[in-house]
Structure formats: structure tokens, C-alpha cells
From TrEMBL, chains A, B:
Catalytic activity: prephenate + H(+) = 3-phenylpyruvate + CO2 + H2O
Upper classification of the organism: Bacteria, Bacillati, Actinomycetota, Actinomycetes, Pseudonocardiales
Limits of the ACT domain: 191-268
EC number(s) stated in the UniProt entry for this protein: 4.2.1.51
Enzyme class: lyase
Domain Prephenate dehydratase: 3-177
GO molecular function: prephenate dehydratase activity
Protein name: Prephenate dehydratase
Gene label: pheA
Gene3D superfamilies noted in UniProt: 3.30.70.260, Periplasmic binding protein-like II
């Protein structure tokens, strides 16, 4: 039975995502994202389940930073969870003076709070579940939580299925110590981070390395590098699998062009949308062009 | 002793270039460029010496077309000849009513002719040397020729070292049947022709495949494809040798991106200017990125 470290405590969206990756796994909550990732690096867990981006709030900085440092870990799966919140209170609560949650969660229910709890002070908790625990312990009157929290804590549902943005989703990654990537499925995503020289055009060049090889970029994020003014670490997600020639060629080109590049995994896309290479960029095109080149180099005919 | 077929007759600039490639070679004149190239294809000559571009007149269409059809031949050397003309007449000629030469040669002495032979009719000959033969046979009064022609024909020099454009040069290629390219010298050029789909951006994409790999384009020519409206064959010359990883990668990419691509050779540059790859594109950068990728693909650490 695999062990999954996740950003806990129990009752968070991350726990829901971890269960979606493997309903049979042993789930081990960790108080922060870096600690959950560190558990994988230390071999205490087989995988770590962490949020990586939210459609409303954007990138989860703690995850981005955890991926960039220390021993490499790679994503082997992703899961996309629709984000609908539940508001929990102690049974019998009639007045809500304080409402707590993770800041990302609070940000996604501002409309609902303005309408239903306009007088409540909003307090930041370490996680949606920590807010539920705080309600249980009497520190807050209400918590904005994941639906799964209602199953863990003896609290009353003041409201459920709320979200200002009805289409909000959060994307989670299942991280593993560096091993062989999962087999290509035909609907794969590859993630990489790259640090490039602080020169005009360098980011464009990175992107051109992908575009020229018929590789569809699905996401780009940048994080400033500490202590290096004007320099950024770029996170790229794109269609395709490291086993494909076009992706291998692009990764090797990024390696040559970057000060630092780190492979963050090739894994099946949650939406299962085809990542097939366009004409001219398929494996058979690469094999055919490589055979042509090899023939020329050995003095053969075209 | 190698045999070099060249675009003759004797006494042309092409003969001068052929002698520059190999002073000991047996030189065999052919009446047209396609016939000189055909002699190599048929194995009747080891090499063909043909003009490929002139700094004033541009590409030599007959050579460009000959390279594109039939069995492939590749350039193994290039030579750049300064172009200065001699004007030859029959000894004792006092009036010049007609002056003949190859049209490219006539074009390069229009200023001199306007000043010194303003009344002479200009007639096109198949080559500068054929014009000299025509003078010998009494068909023309004067011929604009290569300096070497004076050594072959019993004619008088009316003028020498003339050229409207003092910096005019013609570039010649030494063509061979397809064999192993000459060893890289560090100052190499690679030539290729490519036919791409008639779509916006396709030429830009070809050029980007080179630029992204740190490959300096030295020349681009286009020739319309017969019977295919709006479609062009592109001739590209760029720095580097097919044995280099960056050049091999670029050639393979052109192969995938083109309807047709033909390797026209990797050979030492006449000017011996370094073709060294810039940082990030050297063989060691490719070996390092390939090793990194291979390690990742086999499940190793970064």
C-alpha cells in the first residue's frame, strides 16, 4: 500500500485530491507543503500530493519553490478538483463574528461572505482544515473548508457548494523521487523549470524551442530568484512526453540554453486530451530524418 | 590524377577556378553547366567545377537548377575568384562594331563599354571563352573574357583588369558524387536546398530552425518551382559542418519541416573565417544535454 504525504491536516482539498490519486493509499498529513515534499525526498513517503495551481488564485508559490530546491522530485500524475466550499460552525452558533480559512480559500468566497456574513472578521489559517480545527477549539466562529472536512469534524454546515467563481478548479500533482517517468499515454504533459540569462529575448527563445518542435505550451509561470535582481525561474508545462523525440530534443535544447534546468516530470493529463504531435513532429518523422542524416554522414545517398 | 569537368570552353573563369582547386588535375571542358555536372553523375569525371554566385549578378541559375535535379551531387570545396576582365580582339583590329561575351560578363563591364566602345553592338555568347573563339573565327570583333583566355587564343589584348565593380567576385563549387563530407576544419559551410509548403511563415520557420541553434546563415536564394504556382525552392548556405550536432539537428529539423530537402555539402569556407559554434551550441553542450536527457529517461537523477 503506497504512502502519500499531503498538505494537511485532514479534511483539506489536498486530502480529497490524494484520495482521488489512490483511494487505497495510506495518507499522511503534513503541516506545510515543503514538509510534505521533504517526506518524499527523505523516503518517508512514496508520493507527495500538493496543489500546484488554482484557476482563480494562480500558482501555489510554496509548491513552485519546493520543486526548485534540494533533491529533485518529479510529478507522476495530476488531478484537477472542482473547488466548492463548505462553511462550518459549531452546532448552535447564531452569530458569526469571525470566519477563518486559508487565504486562497477566503479569496474565492468574497462575494458569498459579503452577502451572507458581511460583519464577520476574516482571519487567515494555515489551511482550510486548520480553520475547521480552530472553530472546533473556539478560536473562530466559522471556517470556509473543503467538503471533506465535514466528515472529519463534528461541526455544522452553515452553507455548502459555494464559490464566487463557479468554474474554479485546483490542480494537484502527485510527486515522486526521480525514477522512470510513467509510460506515455498519448495524452501527456511535461513540466520543467529553467533559469535563463538576464538578456532580452531569452524567454522568447525558450518558447521558440518548443513552438518550432510542434509542442503546445499549456502554462508558464515565473518566480523571481532571490538575491539575483531581474532574474527569473520559469516554469513551463507543455504537451508531450519525455520519451518522444520532439520533447527530448526540446528538453536538450533548454538544457543548452539555460543556466539551470530541472525536469519536473512527464505524466498523463487529467483532462486526457490528446497530446499527439502534429505532422512533421511525430516520432516517425524524427526517425526518418535521423536515418536520412545518418546516411548522409556516412557518405550514403539521400 | 583527378579529373575535373568544368563549364568551358578553355579560357573561362571556371577554368581558372578549377586550376585553383587542383593545379595538377586533368581539366575537361563541357559546353554547359548541366553537362559538366552530368559528367560527374555519370562517373566520367571525379569533380565538376561550376560557378554558383557572382557578387554583382547573383545566383547562377543553371547551377542552382542542376543541383536540384537527378542524382545528388555535393560540394566538397569552394573557391572565390576576383573578377577582372580582359578585352580581346584579332591582332590589327581598328574598329570594333560587335563585342561579345557571356551575359553575366557583359553586365559587369557596362560602364567600361559605354566609355570605350560606345558604338559596339553587344552580343551574347555561351561563355567568355566562346566569345574569344567567335572573335578568332571572325564572328565578333571583340570579346570580354577571363584573363586566362589570353593564354589560350592568339588574340590581342585591347584592355585588361577591367570591371565596373572593383570588388566583384565569383564563387565556384567543386562538386562530387555523394560521399563522406570532407573533415570539419573549424571554418566550414553547409549548403542545402529545401522545398516547403506554400504557407505563411514556413520560410521564417526554416530560418528559425537555424537561428535557434546558433547557426549563422550566410546566403539564401529562392527559385520558383516549375508548374507549382507560388511554391519556391530555397537554397540556404550557413556556417558549420554536418558532423556538428547543432548542424545535424538543424538538417534533421529541415527534413521534417520540408516537402523536399537535399543536402548540398559541408566544405571548408574559402575565406577560412571561423564557423565555431557560439556558447550553448557547441558539441560539448550537445553531449552534455544528451547525457542529461538519457539519464532522466532511464530514471536517473538530474
Amino acid at each position: 500500500m503506497p504512502r502519500i504525504a499531503y498538505f494537511g491536516p485532514q479534511g483539506t482539498f489536498t486530502e480529497q485530491a490524494a484520495r482521488a490519486f489512490d483511494a487505497q493509499a495510506e495518507l499522511v498529513p503534513h503541516p506545510t507543503i515543503p514538509l510534505a515534499v521533504a517526506a518524499v525526498r527523505a523516503g518517508e513517503a512514496d508520493f507527495a500530493c500538493v496543489p500546484v495551481e488554482n484557476s482563480v488564485e494562480g500558482a501555489v508559490s510554496a509548491t513552485m519553490d519546493a520543486l526548485a530546491v534540494d533533491e529533485p522530485v518529479v510529478a507522476v500524475a495530476e488531478h484537477v478538483l472542482p473547488i466548492r466550499f463548505t462553511v462550518l460552525t459549531r452546532p448552535g452558533t447564531t452569530e458569526v463574528a469571525t470566519v477563518a480559512s486559508h487565504p486562497h480559500a477566503l479569496a474565492q468566497v468574497q462575494g458569498w461572505l459579503a452577502e451572507h456574513l458581511p460583519g464577520a472578521a476574516q482571519l487567515a489559517a494555515n489551511s482550510t482544515a486548520a480553520a475547521a480545527v480552530g472553530v472546533l477549539e473556539g478560536r473562530y466562529d466559522a471556517a470556509v473548508t473543503a467538503p471533506v472536512a465535514a466528515a472529519h469534524y463534528p461541526l455544522a454546515e452553515l452553507a455548502s457548494d459555494i464559490a464566487d467563481e463557479r468554474d474554479a478548479v485546483t490542480r494537484f500533482l502527485l510527486l515522486s523521487r526521480l525514477t522512470q517517468a510513467p509510460e506515455p499515454t498519448g495524452a501527456d504533459r511535461t513540466s520543467v523549470l529553467a533559469v535563463v540569462a538576464h538578456q532580452p529575448g531569452e524567454l522568447q527563445n525558450l518558447l521558440a524551442e518548443l513552438a518550432l518542435r510542434g509542442i503546445n505550451l499549456s502554462r508558464i509561470e515565473s518566480r523571481p530568484l532571490r538575491g539575483r535582481f531581474g532574474e527569473y525561474r520559469f516554469y513551463l508545462d507543455f504537451d508531450g512526453h519525455i520519451a518522444e523525440p520532439r520533447v527530448g530534443d526540446a528538453l536538450a535544447a533548454l538544457h543548452r540554453r539555460s543556466q539551470q534546468v530541472r525536469f519536473l516530470g512527464s505524466y498523463p493529463k487529467a483532462d486526457a486530451a490528446s497530446s499527439a504531435a502534429p505532422a512533421g513532429h511525430r516520432a516517425e518523422d524524427h526517425h526518418s530524418s535521423a536515418a536520412w542524416l545518418a546516411s548522409l554522414r556516412s557518405g550514403g545517398a539521400e
